[in-house]
DNA sequence: CGCTGACCCTGACGGC
DNA sequence: TGCCGTCAGGGTCAGC
């Protein structure tokens, strides 16, 4: 489920409920996530106060005086704040109970997500080698052009490579390339310099638009407030195989690239 | 070093 | 109805 817009939606939704709160108790019902939840984690966090909630790539970083809690939602994860106690449902793997009431609850059916505690987030192996934020200043046409030289991979896979730029997942890679009119299979290293301005703008625009709509709910994504995202209605190619291109009417094509479904207009995108 | 494909896991859905 | 194959928004890792 979550790409950058969904994670950012979650961050914004949770911030008023969790920042400034003191953790009373952490309850781990199922530690077998992408990486096992450390047995020492609940004890380490008990009594800690959350001072900040930030996002880096698709990670949520809860800054506490006991270290930084890193949460990744994987494919199927979601975080919700519950003001009142609620019976855990299937796949509700982790609860963070706050002093004074309220619970932050992680649900993740496929368990590709992760919950980690670190004292040194900047140099954590999972974060250290990440590329620039797509909505930050470092991500511009010059950067992406240089990062693409001599690369033989398809531009779509290139955009989804977290070392190149973070946060661009399967939905928004297809959507951005449609907006930039670039064929997803075009070799990254063979794209003309002039096309990188529109491409970078397309990536930024589609992510910004999606954040404004509260992300994309395909199956089960809900933001921190439990609301689904509404960007699905704005998707132009994703999951539209066979339907007419909104620009030219040609049927949208679907092809598998690097084991991921890829959607594009074979007429508009070159 | 760059790149490909296997793999982690559960659930929904369509075909038979 | 039930079984089976396919697919799903994430990422790491081994191997060439």
Task: Give a short summary of the structure.
The protein is of the alpha+beta class.
Quick tags:
globular; 24% helix; single chain; DNA-binding; 7 helices; Helicase, Ruva Protein, domain 3; four-stranded antiparallel sheet; N-terminal domain of MutM-like DNA repair proteins; 270 residues; alpha+beta; 2 domains
Record the SSE blueprint.
Blueprint lengths: L3 H15 L4 E6 L12 H5 L4 E7 L2 E6 L2 E6 L5 E5 L9 E7 L4 E5 L6 E5 L6 H4 L12 H8 L6 H5 L10 H11 L15 H17 L40 E5 L2 E5 L6
Antiparallel strand pairs: 1-6, 2-3, 3-4, 4-8, 5-7, 6-7, 9-10
Helix pairs in contact: 1-7, 4-7, 6-7
This protein binds a DNA duplex (16 and 16 nucleotides) through helix 6.
Verbal overview:
By secondary structure, this protein is an alpha+beta fold. It contains 7 helices and 10 strands. The chain has helices at residues 4-18, 41-45, 125-128, 141-148, 155-159, 170-180, 196-212; strands at residues 23-28, 50-56, 59-64, 67-72, 78-82, 92-98, 103-107, 114-118, 253-257, 260-264. The strands form 3 sheets. Strands 1-6-7-5 form a 4-stranded antiparallel sheet. The protein is globular, with a radius of gyration of 20 Å. It starts with a helix and ends in a 6-residue tail after the last strand. It binds a DNA duplex (16 and 16 nucleotides) through residues 1-3, 6, 32, 34, 58, 72-77, 91, 108-114, 126, 150-153, 157, 162, 169-172, 215-216, 218-221, 238, 258-261.
């Amino acid at each position: 489920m979550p790409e950058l817009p969904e994670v950012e939606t979650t961050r914004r939704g949770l911030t008023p409920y969790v920042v400034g709160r003191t953790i009373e108790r952490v309850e781990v019902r199922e530690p077998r996530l992408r990486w096992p939840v450390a047995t020492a984690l609940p004890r380490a966090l008990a009594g800690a106060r959350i001072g900040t909630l930030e996002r880096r790539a698709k990670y949520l970083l809860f800054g506490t005086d006991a270290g930084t809690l890193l949460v990744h939602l994987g494919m199927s994860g979601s975080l919700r704040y519950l003001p009142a106690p609620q019976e855990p449902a299937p796949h509700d793997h982790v609860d963070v109970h706050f002093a004074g009431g309220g619970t932050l609850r992680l649900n993740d059916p496929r368990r590709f997500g992760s919950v980690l505690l670190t004292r040194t987030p900047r140099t954590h192996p999972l974060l250290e080698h990440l590329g620039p934020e797509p909505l930050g200043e470092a991500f511009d046409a010059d950067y992406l052009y240089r990062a693409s030289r001599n690369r033989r991979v398809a531009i779509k896979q290139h955009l989804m490579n977290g070392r190149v730029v973070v946060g661009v997942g399967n939905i928004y890679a297809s959507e951005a390339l449609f907006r930039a009119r670039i064929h997803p299979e075009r070799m990254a290293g063979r794209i003309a310099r002039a096309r990188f301005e529109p491409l970078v703008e397309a990536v930024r625009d589609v992510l910004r638009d999606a954040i404004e709509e509260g992300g994309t709910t395909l199956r089960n994504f809900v933001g921190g407030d439990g609301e689904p995202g509404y960007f699905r209605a704005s998707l132009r190619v994703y999951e539209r195989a066979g339907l007419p291109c909104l620009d030219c009417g040609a049927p949208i094509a679907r092809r598998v690239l690097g084991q991921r479904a890829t959607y594009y207009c074979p007429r508009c995108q070159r």
